Each structure stands twice: as structure tokens, then as C-alpha cells.
Amino acid sequence: MTITEEQKLIYLKEKLEIKKYLKLIQELGNDTSKIELILTKIEQELMQSIDESYQNLSAEELTNNLLKDGRIEWCYRNAITKLDKVKNLIQEEYNNAIKKDGFYHEIDNNMKTIKNRIKDVTEENLTITIELMISLLFSIKNIDKSKEYLANQIYKLTYQVIKLELIYKRKSILLEEVKKSDLNTINVEKYLLEEIQSLDLSKNENEKIKIRYNELKTKGLDNNFLDDELLNLLKFHNHKKDLSTLEKKLVIQVQDLEQQQKEIKDKKIRKNNLEKELEEVSINKKRIQNHLIRHITLIIGQLALVITTMIGANAISKKVSTINYVSEHKTTYDINKDEVKKEQKEIWLKRILTLTDSRILKQYNPWYDKETEENGLLSHDYYQEVLTYDLSSLNYEDIRDYASINLEDYTPSVTEEKSDYIHIEDVYQEPQYIITEIHYDLDNIYQKQNNLLYGILLAISEVGALSLEIFLLNNRFQIRLRCIKTAIESLQKQKEEQIELEKELYELNQTLSLIENNHEILQNNLLEELKYLPASNNQELNKVKRKIKENTISKK
Fold first, then answer.
1. Contact (Cβ atoms closer than 8 angstroms) between residue 457 and residue 317
2. Quick one: which of 111, 125, 249, 297 has the most CB atoms within 10 Å?
3. Under a CB-based contact definition with an 8 Å cutoff, are residues 529 and 323 in contact?
């Protein structure tokens, strides 16, 4: 086989491979006419160049096969180079076609999923359906003009889902998403107008639709038929099954409303009873308090000595329990973060005899992992070396100035800390330096009462006073004291009962408020639904409609 025949064979193989890709692209529904024209042109240029090669050869050169083959070989090489470029172009075209096919396949799957879901709608699956529908709307901008029918299917499906959303959720998130784009609005609106045209607007059942439609038409250029009220009037058209489902749901809502009304009535009765009980408790408390005051008044004179003793004991207890305090001012400077923190607390001078100002610098070296063996088991622990420098001999006004000293002039105390776990924020590569300065304000020592010591001393004094009471007081005093004790216990019970009643009343009011609010919301939602609900054979709903109508007429 000559070199020319080899080049011719390579050319044919390249050409066949390109045609194979062309067929695959065509099967994916893409146009290949431009590339086919390029292939035809390369073929024509090859034949033309071979003819020209023969024409340019002299009679003597035509007899030289080697020269002839060389020129024809060059023609094929040139054509193969052009085919290589086309091959790269068509492979890229094929990859794009595969991606586009996957894109359309995903759109088809999503549309099938949505169509299956809306056959048997629930409030739960409707949420997922809306999310899928919004993603389909976003995908329209990437659909080719040749697939425009897909975009129309998406818009039609969008209109159906908007109506279902209004049926089951009363408001449409999808509708708001559509209104963000004029293009989406126009295309979805088209199916609304088609539906209106399919209706006989002269019928009484379509009277409200006709009125609203005509109102919107009068707006002229500002008109937008994707109107909430018009959509609500149209939403049940071609959705009889969903209307039946909604009617059943509304019947349950009516029953819930009736149950809530009964519950509200019962709770209001209980509220009135609680208020009466509280009033009785208040009267009893006043009666017991008067009884208590009468007995207390009779024995005030006899208690004078005890009171005087307790007042004296209280004064002594206060004096003895008074303790000296001083303020401790602590300043911390984190050198690595350049962060200064200050805090202040009280120090009890009786507990701390010697207080001196101090300044220390701590150097925290990075944690390192050490492997240890215990009972034949390997474990990993983290260790950190901490160097503490005493800088008390220095006294700078600004704590930051201590960061500039030469630590080599000081001898630190060294400790090692251990941990089986360290937080990520504690991992660092360089040593961390913390300076702590503590100052005691010894020029301003102040006094405060120690409540614990005061309580102990006061308890001791009360025991003494009680002993004096037992020794001095007579039987009549003891009887009156028992009366007072009984009155106090009775008063305490009344207070506890009052607290429980007030607590129950508070909780009842809260519950009642929630039920009434929920009742009002549920009632308003029901009225809104019934406003757009077409004629129904459901007696429960018709009864509610009549009540609403009667109530409206009576208000007028």
C-alpha cells in the first residue's frame, strides 16, 4: 500500500466517524445541516485540488508515479487536517447535544411528576409541586426555539398549579413568582383568557366572573388578568374533585368552629366562677387580718421587753457582722490578639491578710500530642508547657509596655498542662503571651455587712428572746399567741388558695385568648373560602352560607 493510499484510507475513516457523530446528533433532535455543508465543501475542495495537481503536471511528470503520488498525498493530508477541525467541532456539538438532551429529559420528568401529583393533590405534596414548578419556570429561558412547545406546556401547567394552590392554600406563591416576569405573566395569562373564553358568561353561575373580567378590561394598558379575585372565581373550574375535597375540609372547619364556641363558652363560665372564688377569698383574708390585728394589739405591751431585747440584739449583730473590704483591679493583656480586658471584684480583708500588687507574664507554648501506653493500650494526650514570669519589680503605667521587656533577663517557673482533648480555637503554632496585672486599692477600704454572719448572730439573739418570752409571759399571753398562730396559718392558706386561683385564672385567660384568636382566624378563613365557593349540594355549608347572608343583611 502506497503512502497516498494510506492517506486516502485515513481520510475515509475520518469522514465515516464524523458521519457517525452527525447521525447521533440528528437522533437527539438537533440540526446538522451546517456541518454537512462544511463536509461537502471539504470533499469538493479535495477533488478540485487533485484535478489541479494533474493539470499542472507535464507529460514527462505524469509518467513519474512518485511525483504524482506525492502531490495527491499532499491533497489528502490537507483535507484530513480540515476534517480534524470539523471532528473537534462536531464532538463539541455532540457533547452539547447530550447535555441539552439531559436538560430536556429532566424537564419531561419534572412535568410528569407534577402532572401525577395534581391528580391527587394534598396540602403536603402541593408544597413540593410548587418548588418543582418554580424550577421549571426558571428553565424556560434555556429552552431552544425549536422546543417552544415545551415552554407552552410549562406555562399551561403553571396556570393549573396556581389554581390548585389557591384552592388548598388560599394564597399562591407560584403566582407571585410568575408576576416577577412580564414574559411569564403574559404567557400564563394566555391560558386564563382561554378558560374565560370557554365559559358561557351569560349564565348566572358565571356572573361574578363576567363582572370582574369586564372591570379588568376597562383598565386598558394597565390591565393584568392574573388578578387574585378573578383567579379565585375561576379556580374551581375543571377542578370538581378538588372542590369536593375542599367542601369536606370546610365541613370539618365548621365543626371545629362550633366546638371552639362551646369551649369558649365553658371557659368563660369557669372564669366567672374563679372571679367569684377570688372575691370570697379576699373577704376571708380581710376578716382573718382584722382578727389577727385585734389579738396583736392586746399583747403589744407584753411584748415590749422582747422587742427591745431583739432590737438591741439586732443592732449588736449588725455591728459585729460588719467587715472591711477592698477593691481588686485586674487587667489582662493578650499580646497575640493585642486585646486588653479589665475586671474588678471585692476582697474580704479578714480573709486575706496580706495584699500586694502583682504583675506576671505567662507564655503558653503550642500543644503537642504525646503517645503513651497504659495497660497495654495506646492513648494520645495533649501537653502544653506554661512559663510564668514574675514582673512585680516593674511598674509601667500602660500594661502594653510590659510586652517590650527582654524575657531572657528573667527566670520563669515552668509547669506542664495535660488534656485529652483540645478545641480547634486553642490550636496555634506560635507561643501565646498573656500579661496579668493585679492592683489593690488599699487607700479606699470600705465596710459592708456580712449577711451570713449577721443571720447567724440574729438567729442566736432570737433564740435568746424566745427563752425570755417563755420565762416572762403568762398563760393569757400563750392563749393569744396560739390565736395569732392559728390566724396566721389560716391567712397563709387563704394566700396560697388566692395564688392558685390567680394562677389558674391567668392561664385560663391566656388559653381563652388563644382560642378566641384562633377561632377568629379560622372563621375569617372560612368566610373567605365560602366567598368564592360555587353552588354546592352540601347542606352543612349551605347552612353556614345562609347564616352569613342573614348576618350581613341584619348588619345593613
1. yes
2. 111
3. no
Q: How far apart are CA 437 and CA 360, in angstroms?
A: 7
- Using the CB atoms, write b or e for 543-552: b if 16+ within 10 Å: ebbeeeeeee
Pairing of strands 446-449, 322-334: antiparallel
| Gap between the Cα atoms of 238 and 249, Å rounded | 19
Strands (E), 229-321: none
Q: What is the DSSP string of 111-137?
A: HHHHHHHGGG--HHHHHHHHHHHHHHH
- Three-state SS for 341? strand
Assigned C-alpha cell, 453? 454572719
26 versus 411: the higher-pLDDT residue is 411
Three-state secondary structure call for residue 392:
coil
Are residues 260 and 515 in contact, defined by beta-carbon separation less than 8 angstroms?
yes
**Measured distance CA(30)–CA(248) in Å, rounded:** 50
Please, what is the angle between helix 123-139 and helix 148-169, to 10°? 150
Residue 116 CA, chain-centre distance (Å), reads 31
Cα 154 from Cα 132, distance rounded (Å) = 11
Convert 390-419 into a string of H (helix), E (strand) and C (coil). ECCCCCCCCHHHHHHCCHHHCCCEEEEEEE
Q: Find the mean pLDDT for residues 213-220.
A: 80
**pLDDT one-digit tens code per residue, 29-72:** 667 777 788 788 888 887 887 777 666 655 555 455 544 566 77
Which comes out higher in pLDDT, residue 124 or 410? Answer: 410
Instruction: Return the closest-CA partner of residue 493 out of 281, 296, 280, 274.
Output: 281
The yes-or-no verdict on residue 240 having pLDDT over 70 is no
What does the alpha-carbon distance between residue 134 and residue 186 come to, in Å, rounded to a whole number? 16
The Cα 48–Cα 56 span in angstroms is 12
Radius of gyration, alpha carbons of the chain: 48
Whether 554 shows a pLDDT value over 50: the answer reads no
The model's pLDDT over 153-205, given as tens digits with 9 standing for 90+, comes to: 888 888 888 888 887 787 888 889 888 888 888 888 888 888 888 888 888 87
The single-letter code of the amino acid at 28 is L
Query: What is the four-CA torsion angle of 533, 534, 540, 546, rounded to 10 degrees?
Result: 90
Distance from CA of residue 38 to its chain's centroid?
Answer: 57
CA distances from 481 to 285, 301, 471 (A): 19, 13, 15
* Alpha carbons 16 and 28: distance in angstroms, whole number: 19
